[in-house]
TrEMBL record:
Residues annotated as signal peptide: none
Keyword field: Phosphoprotein, Two-component regulatory system
Superkingdom of origin organism: Bacteria
Source species taxonomy: Bacteria, Pseudomonadati, Bacteroidota, Flavobacteriia, Flavobacteriales
Swiss-Prot/TrEMBL GO biological process terms: phosphorelay signal transduction system
Domain Response regulatory: 8-122
Protein name from the UniProt record: Response regulatory domain-containing protein
Residues with PTM 4-aspartylphosphate: 59
Record organism: Confluentibacter flavum
């Protein structure tokens, strides 16, 4: 069995301004070395094959496809990641939740809620495991 490199978070977002804003807020409570970025479906799938993530922030509308492909992989591979969908495409909210997303946040208005929720989840995971290696 391959040993996966452990990272706490994966941010999947193809808009550089938005991904920078997310990472800036995340680094208030997590070391930036524990955050991986991907801006395509293909790049995300590659990272999921080589890294273990506690939390994934997932945009749906990516240049090379739909983030639901990534959500499907998390479910099919029985990954224990919490997946927070962050998208403007709210019509897909119910589909994402049925496919195993932890929560759905509207990109047009829920940024602060997303960060707050991720921070709480991160603190809960960190407290439960004492030291994640």
């Amino acid at each position: 069995m391959n040993k996966l490199i452990s990272h706490y978070m994966l941010v999947v977002e193809d808009e550089p301004i938005i991904s920078e804003k997310i990472v800036k807020k995340l680094t208030d409570f997590i070391d930036s070395k524990k955050i991986k970025l991907a801006n395509t479906v293909a790049g995300s799938l590659d990272l999921l094959d080589t890294c273990k993530f506690n939390i994934i922030i997932l945009d749906l509308n990516l240049n090379d496809g739909n983030g639901i492909t990534i959500l499907n992989k998390v479910k099919e591979d029985h990954l224990k990641s919490l997946v927070y969908v962050f998208s403007i495409n709210s019509e897909l909210k119910n589909i994402c939740l049925k496919k195993g997303a932890t929560a759905f946040f509207d990109k047009s208005k829920d940024f602060d809620d997303l960060i707050s929720t991720v921070k709480t989840a991160y603190q809960n995971i960190f407290n439960e495991s004492d030291s994640v290696q």
